Structures are given as structure tokens and as C-alpha cells.
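Regression test case RT-17, inverse folding.

Input:
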């Protein structure tokens, strides 16, 4: 009887732990080291933080962009609409280059709000997971832009 109770407890603990261990996980960050004075020339980095390979479709939305001349852009999508990454292995990362679609000179932006939405699907999962990250880009006193994660 005691062995059956211990077995049941281990099963109840082990099943959720196994589920979360194989759950696809990813991070979305900006590599700002290359172009600190032009945030849209830096790549978006998608990294597999989990233990299983997956594919993803990523969409990038501009919530608000304010230029130094006072012009604003609101609620736009950065083309192409969907960027696909296939077979991203565990601990691997890939870059999405924003400079191919948005060309702006250095020091052109005052502020910039960006939301990145990815649909990820592991090979063995029958459904997709949604990962959403939002960033506020602000200019520091040194002239370099900082990507600050915001709560979604």
C-alpha cells in the first residue's frame, strides 16, 4: 500500500515536470552592439531556450515611432509580414534583420515602441504556442538607444 502511494505521488509530480521540460521555450532579444545609434539596423535574435527543436513564424509590429522631425508612425507592420524560422535546435539562435525592410539614418528616432509576436510549433506538438514581447526604445544621454522590455 505504501509503495502504491509513493508511486502515485511520484507520478503526480513527474508528469507535470516532464510536460514543462519538453514545452517549447524561446527568447526574443535585440542585439544592439552593432549599431547603438540606429535601433532599426540591429537584428532581432530568436533563441531556443528549451530542450526540443521547433519552427516559428514571427511578426513585428510598430506601435508608435516618433522621428526627430516630429513625424509619427502608428500601428504598422514591418514587412515582410511573416518571417519563418525552420528547425531551431535547442540553445541555437537565429537573427531577423530589420535593416532589410526599414531604412533610416542614424539618430533619426526620438522613441520607438515595438511588439514581436511569434507562433512556435515543436515537431511533435499538434498545436502552436504564442510568444509576445514588447519593447520601448529610448535614447540615452550618450546618444545610444536602449531596448527596454515592456510588459505585454
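Golden output:
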Amino acid at each position: 500500500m505504501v509503495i502504491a502511494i509513493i508511486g502515485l505521488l511520484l507520478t503526480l509530480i513527474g508528469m507535470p515536470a516532464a510536460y514543462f521540460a519538453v514545452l517549447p521555450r524561446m527568447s526574443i532579444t535585440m542585439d544592439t552592439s552593432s549599431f547603438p545609434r540606429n535601433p532599426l539596423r540591429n537584428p532581432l535574435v530568436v533563441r531556443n531556450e528549451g530542450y526540443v527543436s521547433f519552427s516559428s513564424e514571427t511578426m513585428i509590429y510598430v506601435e508608435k515611432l516618433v522621428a526627430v522631425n516630429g513625424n509619427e508612425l502608428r500601428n504598422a507592420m514591418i514587412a515582410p509580414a511573416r518571417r519563418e524560422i525552420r528547425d531551431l535546435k535547442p540553445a541555437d539562435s537565429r537573427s531577423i534583420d530589420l535593416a532589410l525592410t526599414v531604412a533610416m539614418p542614424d539618430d533619426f528616432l526620438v522613441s520607438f515602441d515595438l511588439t514581436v509576436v511569434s507562433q512556435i510549433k515543436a515537431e511533435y506538438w499538434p498545436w502552436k504556442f504564442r510568444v509576445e514581447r514588447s519593447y520601448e526604445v529610448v535614447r540615452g544621454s550618450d546618444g545610444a538607444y536602449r531596448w527596454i522590455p515592456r510588459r505585454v
